[in-house]
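Predict the assembly for these two chains.
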Amino acid sequence: MIIKDVLCPFCGCLCDDLAVEVENNKVVDVKHACKIGASKIMGHDRIKAPMMRDDKNGEFREVSYDEAINESAKILANSKRPLLYGWASGVCEMMKKGVLLNEEVGGIIDNTASVCHGPSALGVHEKGLPTGTLGQFANRSDLVVFWGCNPVQAHPRHMSRYSVFNKGFFTAKGRKSRKVVVFDVRKTDTAEMADEYVQVNPGEDYLVISALRAVVADKADVVPDSVGGVPKEKLVELGEAMKGAKYGMVYFGMGLTQSRGKYKNIDNAVSLITELNAHGKHSILPMRGHYNVTGFGQVCAWETGFANAVDMSRGIPYYNPGETCSNDLLMREEIDAAMVIAGDAGAHFPAQSIARMGKVPVIQVDPFHNPTTEMANIVIPTKVSGVELEGTAYRMDAVSLRMRKLVDVDFPSDEEVLDKIIAKIREIKGASS
Amino acid sequence: MSEMRIKNATVYDPINGINGDLMDIAVKDGKIVDSVGGSAQTIDAGGRLVYPGGVDAHTHIAGSKVNVGRIMRPDDSRLNNKPRTKVTRPRTGYTVPNVYSMGYGYAEMGYTTAFEAAVPILKARHTHEELEEIPILDKAGLTLFGSNWMVMDAIREDDLDRLAAYVAWGLLASRGWGIKIVNPGGGEAWGFGKNVSGLDDPVPNFEVTPRQIVRQLAEANEKLNLPHSIHLHCNNLGKPGNYETTLATFDVCKDIKSKRDRQSLHVTHVQFNAWGGNHWGDIESKSEPIADYLNKNDFLTIDMGQLVFGSATTMTADGPVQYANARLLKARWSNGDVELEDSSGVTPLEYHPQSYIHGIMWAIGLELALLTKDPWKVLMTTDHPNGGPYVNYPMVMTMLMSKKRREKEMEKIAELTFDRTSIAGIDRELDWYDIAIKTRAAHAKVQGIIELGKGHLGVGADADIAIYDIKPDETDATVEFDKVEAAFRHAAYTIKGGEIVVKDGEITATPKGRTYWVKATAPADGHERMMEDLKMKFKKYYSVNMANYMVQDEYVEHPYVFETGYQ
């Protein structure tokens, strides 16, 4: 059986044109996907049963779901400062339960954006975000800038589906309809395919953006001979090209959000785009990583008023990045228990945070073994969303789509596990009050 | 199910012509009935004011742009915070409340139904995700059609049946209630940073005019016999001198006839579109010619879009006006282009009474309501949260009821305002009956939901009832406006579908409301031509596949499907 129009549970492109062949409840072939997406859908070594251990250096023993869930509930119910982290590779339905669980335990809910596009959100708080949907850019953009991102490796179909090679209404010649510019510290594979590669000195993106703003404002005379490693003539040429674009597009990644300047880089880039809109049309879009990392920001915002890093210890949602993000709390050694779900703290957090996680009970909810498993005390395997479970995901441009189920499995969904944990926590807290 | 009796109620139910009668109301199984048995739960209203549950025909409560506002404004989410209770979830936000506060806030004021006024089809799934999470209220969404490529192509090719078929399909795809048009054609022009300048300025690349868009969508609306008329946000909103465009736009629909007992045109938040002058320096109120037009014509209705001083988060599918606002005010600016369909923008701002421009805007909203004789023609709204957040409705109600209350507000407003407006000279004060019209009855009539049992308390209607802690016969609303406002802010009881959801201003239950949407049959040959065009557009221009585009049933858990269509 071939299932068409399948959505891909890998990256923020959330491609929805896959064809998946299923035989006897097993995925046997994936068409149209990139290699990473296909590999995820085909499936690989997954955790087969719930596991627990008291000593993080010890061996896991297989346990029942009930035992793992009850023990998890006990840990979270008794914790004074629980961290609920991850919430990216899952569907929105489970994220809503996560927000509810956080209310129950008075903890902190934080999403992987915390170590990824979190600074982008701070830039948005300062300046807003002039953007649109990917189809708008596909149909219109004649100037495409990739800044500190490398879609060839990280978002393999982005350039063919949305940004560079595809043909649209006003971009009928596809690649030839567009000028492509890459700003990066190194010549990536994306840069190899661009019309222009602009090498920026590491940590000096902010300066380069400021210089472009000066050119756009007809103040090129204040720009020094070289800024951030880019010669003035090049900056003037690029600034003028941006001004002359009918629809200019900037896609940006970690090279901008996690380098020196962080959210200030985004603030500056948004200002550049806003000013450019006095000339032509211009938009900017963060290249979000996980297929539904955007969804958590949406769900958390409509449920709590804040997109991420929500501390419920006061009984009301409280958000203050720098104080309430995972790593702030772990480094201050406030966290006394953690649940990592649909994300991988073990692989991405700095050593100091990992050291703290090594000292507190950690619950992992995930279909797959990853570095977080190495520091977990309880591991609860669940369904793979978008393969074994239907549900909602938000593409990087915040267009929501419904993911399909391709095969049936006996694992519980994240949502079911969270429901049971919440019920058990209510039981424990009800009994003690 | 349960029975309930509300006795000694001073009832204002304009749809049934009840004007302050002291009576009992009987409720059974969530509906109003003639009588109930002796064992029914009884609430003694003690002569207090009873209205049908409030209906808001135009508000922005859910979806992409509201969430853009929340994400951009953590400063706003820090306001009005309340911890959860045994029945409620935590609350945040003033201009962009979280979904829970959104529902609780309306219910606390005795409101039970709200219409989200701008739903792009591509983003309708998101809108419904939020609508589902808003507790208590019944709701519906108006679907954006005014800059849509399918719409403009059908109009250019003069194919009304194909247009009607697309409207029917778009309402199905978005699970929408009616046709919303925002700055017709302007959303497409904004795709390349341009705008349209008026009714006869062709949309770039599409060779249709805003006039044609309005006219043809109004005709398609009647062809499909939709419960609501077209719902229009005019061109040139937010620009001095725009009242001329507004009046000319009214005329476009003058001879459109509806088979239903309703207007054939609803023009929304007209406060923003009744400006005279040529620039910000000489801006003045032009509410008089607008009200004059309304007094002479019966085919149209409007809503106020009243301004409330303080913080607002403006959000609209009118992308270019938001860019202009943001540049003018040096404010944060979020833009949201939607491929093939529309644009949008979100900008926070602050309305200052000492700014004469804001003073004039404040005056225009009230003037429109007070100079138009028939209270059914002008709905009370603030275009939440554009003119100000909906929680201020009780204050606006008192301003309509009391000249003294208006004068109190005028004391803090810039003097120049009164040279350019007529508000200071208006003596009219609305009564309890008028307010019932302007906050529920007329909203239900305009949206076509009277027959669904909304906006009134007749037998068979939904038992959506508001009891306010005030006795009309013992209260002079023209003087005791503070008391009136306090009563309207916190209903003594809000009853939704026969269940008490608010008591003494506190939420007591949070049932899920239903979502209304329209399923319309279209002319068959038009449908065929439309599908051909639609498939081509998905194949070549949309970034999602057609099979994944339409809102699935999973997102509308409590639907009420209104069936209508072409005969």
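Chain B touches chain A through 64 residues (CB under 8 Å). The longest helix of chain B spans residues 524-540.
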